[in-house]
Amino acid sequence: MRVEADGTVDVTVTVNGRAVTLAVAPRTTLSDVLRDRLGLTGTHVGCEHGVCGMCTVLLDGEAVRACLLFAVQCDGASLTTVEGLGSADDQHPLQQAFSHHHALQCGFCTPGMLMSSYDLLAGGTYSRDTLAEDMSGVLCRCTGYRGILAAVADVAETHADGVPPPRAAVPPALVGRTSGASPASSLALNARKSASSDTSPAEAPGEIPPEITAPTGPPTATVEVRSELASGVDDVWAVLADFDRLAACLPGAEMTADLGDDRYRGRATVGLGPVSLRFDGLAHVVEHDPVARRMRVLAQGTDRGGSSTQAVIRLAADPAEGGGTVLWADADVHLSGRVAQFGRALAGDVSRRLFEQFAEAVDEAARTGEAPTTRTSPLRLALGALLARIRRLVQRRR
Ligand code: FES
Ligand code: FES
Fold first, then answer.
1. pTM greater than 0.70 (yes/no)
2. How far apart are CA 280 and CA 254, in angstroms?
3. What is the pLDDT of residue 370?
């Protein structure tokens, strides 16, 4: 196969029991795909040239160095990462034994140690005499080898008939994680485009809009914001019912194409402190009830740096006592890639502030009958969220 220098290849793999198709550049390593595209950051990266063993995962049941494999070499393979070995609620015996024997200090080597020891025990060649040598493919810079070897020996001896298989615990489903053609193909579409040119997805002619499916699994953050607006409920609903005006009320967002059938393309810029992310994405209004004044929107976006976001957003407008409107905005937000590392609390803070500023903009648009004139800077939004969180932490410490 020949691929243009800036081209991508579609790769389908089954990761922890779930099939996923991604468009990847041929030079992308498996470790980068697992961490940056799928948000599976349990696979650690130390040396990136096959020495330290931090990145050990199972490929079709065999331990491999994810930093030494290109993702394109794994097409059709089944992968198990440490997230698939077990979860916090359902730990694999090896994880329990590592905890029991305190087989970790900083924990950086622990995923590699767990996957490597699973491979050893599943291979049926365990021997107490050669255990240290057999486990020498993963380095522990904290030198906590005694606890690690004790944990592995403990599991080998208590499961002499064979170590239990990985739990294949599936982490929260995020953009690009499901096997259905829709999210994966949309991710592939965006990745191909971003690799090949600066053309926005909205500007490509003749493309069939991909479907968006509701994400499954627990969200990264759930937010619910109740705002009291001075404008009357009919005026507020008129803004929500007009996607052009609605999009203009979202801080940092811009609609780039109306794809028909209540589907829209757009882009949004989100800043988290020093990190600025620009998402190209899709939104689909899946429910729109003008009588009850309720709507539900599915949205997904990908950033060129490998961050993905997917959200189920519900908006509702109710008449308030005294003539104004109560605007309800709640969302289940699913994040993966770099952005997911900011954590649940910060994701919730940013989403909440975004909705608060959205409500202010809707109020203005409802009052004037136009798109809002005061647009919130996404960077200020994020810095505000960060400062509020830092202030809360300081107050808690006091
Ligand atoms: S990061 Fe892969 S072996 Fe070190
Ligand atoms: S526990 Fe720190 S590297 Fe192993």
1. no
2. 10
3. 77
Nearest atom, ligand 2, residue 113 CA: 4
- More confidently predicted of 217 and 229: 229
Ligand 2 nearest-atom number relative to CA 142: 2
CB 304 within 8 A of CB 279: no
How far is the CA of 181 from the CAs of 19, 22, 26, 87, 234, in angstroms? 10, 11, 21, 27, 39
C-beta separation of 49 from 347 below 8 A: no
Give the amino acid at 100.
H
Q: In what order do the strands lie in the sheet with 18-24?
A: 18-24, 9-15, 78-80, 56-59, 62-65
45 CA → ligand 1 middle, Å:
6
Token pair listed for 30: 């498996």
Candidate from 24-33, 253-262, 301-310, 373-382 with smallest mean pLDDT: 373-382
| Per-residue pLDDT at 56 exceeds 50 | yes
Q: Which CATH number fits domain 93-158: 3.40.47.10, 3.30.1330.30, 2.40.50.140, 1.10.150.120?
A: 1.10.150.120
| Residue 114: partners with Cβ closer than 8 Å, 6 or more residues away | 82, 85, 92, 94, 95, 98
Strands 253-260 and 221-229: unpaired
Q: Which atom of ligand 2 is nearest to the CA of 107?
A: 1
pLDDT in tens, 161-170: 999 999 875 5
Q: Is the CB of 141 under 6 A from ligand 2?
A: yes
Q: Which CATH number fits domain 218-397: 3.40.630.30, 3.40.50.1100, 3.30.530.20, 1.10.10.10?
A: 3.30.530.20
For residues 324 and 367, give the distance between their C-alpha atoms in angstroms, rounded to a whole number. Answer: 11
